Amino acid sequence: MKRVRAWPLLRPSLRSAALATLLVALPMAADAQRPRRGSEQSRLELEQRVRARMARVIQQRLGLDEQQADTLSAVVADFDARRRELARQDLAIRRRVEALMLEGGENQTEARALLQRMADLRKEEAATFEAEQAGLLEILSPVQVLRLQALRAEVGRRIRALRGGRGGDRPPGPPER
Fold it and tell me: What is the model's pTM?
């Protein structure tokens, strides 16, 4: 019986999407089968493997050489750290708002301060987004930046789907752009 190979029949864009999905899903599936002991260490190792694989996929999909990929990785890491910090601040503000409401929500001074912190945080998120785009445009063409954003959005959707639509136990990040 002749074997039919379905992989080459996929369009190149679908093949890349399928590869990216496999690179993200396979390690996560393997991790789900591991015992929970040392789960923090396992999660960190899994995250590092997924990031390394995604870096290779991004390099291939954007047509980058090694130096461009390394520079891009450094820029993305810097801004990812900043976004995580902003997400932590956002979570802290939201928790304080919830607590204030449970306390009766009558402290006008604190309510005004929380509103100001929210506005300042949104401005900081916007400034971070603009700075990241400028940093990316020093390495990538505008079309490559858009491809990178699309790839990030797709990976994010797939990860959420793998988690069953849950956000996990991490604080939510700023809205996707």
Answer: 0.62
